[in-house]
Amino acid sequence: MASRLHSLRAHLLALWVLLLASAAATAYLLFEVYAQSAAVQVAQAEVEVARACRDIGDRFAFFSAGWSGSVADVDDTLKDQLADVVVTALAGHPGVEGGIWTASGGSAAYAFPTYEGTGPKTDLPAAEIDTIRRINAEALSADRPVAARRAARTQTLVVQGCPLRGPVQGATGWTMARVYTDQGRAYGQLLAGFGFLGATVLGSALLLGRLLLVLGRRIARLEGQLGRDAPDSDLLHLAPTGLRELDRLVEALNAAGARLATARRRAAEAERLAALGQLAAGIAHEIRNPLAAMRLKAENALASADPARPRAALDLVLAQVARLDRLLRDLLSLTQPRAPALAPTDLAGMLAECAHLHDDLARSQGVRIALGDVPAGRPLLDEAQLRRALDNLLLNAIQHSPAGGTVRLSGTREGDMVRIRVSDEGNGVPDALRARLFEPFVTARPDGTGLGLAIVREIARAHGGQVGLAAPPPTSPLHGDPGPGATFELDLPWRPPPTS
Fold first, then answer.
1. Is Chloroplast given among the entry's keywords (predicted)?
2. Is residue 499 domain-resident?
3. How many domains is the chain partitioned into structurally?
């Protein structure tokens, strides 16, 4: 399996992380731009407030020019006049409110000529009285303009206090403006930027999440299709996934499967033709020997005057005819394989019966048959074909075992397969024959036809299994140990019977 770092899913997740990082950086830049814009607005407000305070000072100086003496108390008439001074001074400063403050009497005048409410604003803002009092006290004490800034969540308050020169004792002018940070073009751009950014990130996250989900399901579906067994060991024809990129891969796999099936059919045809040539040569050899023996016996019987010779010749002819009949039956089984008739089979009972049927032959050869562990169960098998395969394997093992030897028959279940072993204690299989042992007419016995193991192979293949020769065990240097022997392993699918 490919490393996670090299998987498509990991690349998409990395893209998602990069997208989030980019969104965070963009959000930070948007906020910084907005903060700088707000700072510019506050700075402009401070400049405007300072100008308005100077204008109040100029208007007050013009208003009080020519007065003699000093004024300690400000009466109502003077307050009205001072209010007119403030209105005139602030009329050219939109959004700026202000007034005149005295150290002894507090507010002497207030005006907000550019107020955009339902009517003229004449009352002093109560929430900012302490700030106004403090800034005027600082300006009077320092005898110079003093500015202050108070930031809140939605606005920044800018206040300016400046001493007034004139007959009114302890008088100062003050101006104030409010900079609303949650309003204006910059704030609208910030909200629009964050909205677009949020929609982009959310949409990308949903799109990538859906892509990961769909891609994972489509790939899992392909894995499931590829994991199923296909008939004749060909590749399954994969169904389209609905994703264009994956469908191109599916089409390529289907095309490769079709080419593979064609190549296998051609190879199988070539193998059948080659096997047919070997089979024809083997048949000619196996038939020629009995025919030659029958002809020789018949000629000798005809030439001899002994009346017993024809009887002996006929007995030999019948024996050779029986041999040819067995040969032809084996050839028919090999060349015309029958599809297995699967049925629930008592595997343990069948192996015990096969071992028991060969006890007499084994005892006549001085050989013992030992039945080992056998898995319990009733898998779907063709009992008749399997009995014939076991007969061939047991006969082969008995014929190759020395007197006093043991033929062992056992079985084990390994997952969804069952492995049946037939072992002998003979001299083993020569290395020259191991690669061709299951081919027709290949045998190490002079009296053998070489068809028994070939029939076993065809029965195993018909069941969807295989038969093989296990690797020989290491030989022991001790004198008297049995030979390396041979162990044949018949592997068949374990198909449980259908449940009712």
1. no
2. no
3. 3
Distance CA 191, CA 193 (A): 5
Burial pattern 191-222, b for ≥16 Cβ within 10 A else e, equals eebeeebeeebeebeeeeeeeeeebeebeeeb
Residue 200 lies in a domain: no
18/166 same-domain check: yes
Residue 208 lies in a domain: no
Q: What is the CATH number of the domain that holds 296?
A: 1.10.287
Measure the CA–CA gap between 432 and 489, rounded to whole angstroms: 20
Two tokens at 471? 């690797």
Q: How far, rounded to the nearest angstrom, does the alpha carbon of residue 407 sit from its chain's CA centroid? A: 50
Per DSSP, 496 falls in state P
Residue 480 confidence class, pLDDT cut points 50, 70, 90: very low
Instruction: Choose one of 300, 335, 370: the last residue of a domain.
Output: 335
Q: Are residues 74 and 140 in the same domain?
A: yes
- Model pTM score: 0.40
Q: pLDDT of 204-225, one tens digit each? A: 777 777 777 777 777 777 777 6
The answer to whether 238 touches 226, Cβ cutoff 8 Å, is yes
Torsion of CA 337, 339, 341, 345, to 10 degrees: 70
Q: Report pLDDT digits (tens) over 124-158.
A: 888 889 999 999 999 999 999 999 988 877 788 99
Q: Are residues 135 and 272 in the same domain?
A: no
